[in-house]
Each structure stands twice: as structure tokens, then as C-alpha cells.
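pls design
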């Protein structure tokens, strides 16, 4: 009996990694979409780091080192997210409303991560369909 057969079917990771989960398209994402996903998650985590640094700065400790470290990192990832969203939107001909929400997601904490998950599930990050011959 192989290891794969021993895993119970209710095991959630198996459903995500196999074709039992119809919401997962097993096509690899193009490189710009992978970069968008990585930057979106990194920007969300940098928000968490910046908020933690702000807590220590404005609490009784008064130590600004967290903001000094996380501020520039978050700023860099913020701009990188905006550029990545713009490039993905241009490559996939997103409507202006979708681009607006992608760019607006950079403002509230953790919203880039939420938008990235929505975009992945709805197929907005897959490669654009090639225009075939018209009948």
C-alpha cells in the first residue's frame, strides 16, 4: 500500500494538492502572477510588522526601532505591490474597476492578501487566453 493510499480522504492538504479539489487549477501561473502573489503576501506581512513596531513605539516602551526597520521595508513592498498589480492587470486586460480594487487593497492592513486569494480563486491570475481564429 503506497503512502498516498494511506492518507485519509478527509485530509485537507490532500484535497488541496490533488484533483479532488475542483477549485484548484493545476496549471502553473505565469511568472508575473507568481510575483504578484509573493509580493501581495509579503506586503501583508510587512503591515503586521509595521503595526507591531508602531505598538512598541507608541506604548510605554517608546522604542521606535521597529518602525525604523519595518517602515522602509513596508514602503518598498507597498510600491512593489502597486507595480506588480499594474503589470498583471495590463497583461490580463483587467477592467478598470478590478484594477482599482487591486490598488486600493494596498491601503488597509492585510487587504492585499485577501485580494490575492480572491484573484486566484476567480481565475484572474491565469494566463490570458490566446485569441484564436474567428469563425
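designed seq:
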Amino acid at each position: 500500500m503506497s503512502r498516498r493510499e494511506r492518507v485519509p480522504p478527509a485530509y485537507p492538504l490532500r484535497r488541496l494538492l490533488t484533483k479532488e479539489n475542483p477549485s484548484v487549477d493545476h496549471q502553473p501561473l505565469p511568472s508575473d502572477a507568481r510575483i504578484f502573489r509573493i509580493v501581495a503576501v509579503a506586503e501583508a506581512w510587512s503591515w503586521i510588522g509595521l503595526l507591531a513596531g508602531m505598538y512598541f513605539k507608541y506604548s510605554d516602551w517608546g522604542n521606535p526601532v521597529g518602525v525604523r526597520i519595518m517602515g522602509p521595508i513596508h514602503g518598498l513592498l507597498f510600491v512593489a505591490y502597486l507595480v506588480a498589480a499594474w503589470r498583471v492587470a495590463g497583461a490580463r486586460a483587467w477592467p478598470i474597476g478590478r484594477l482599482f480594487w487591486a490598488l486600493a487593497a494596498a491601503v488597509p492592513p492585510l487587504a492585499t492578501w485577501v485580494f490575492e486569494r480572491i484573484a486566484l480563486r476567480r481565475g484572474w491570475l491565469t494566463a490570458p487566453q490566446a485569441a484564436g481564429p474567428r469563425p
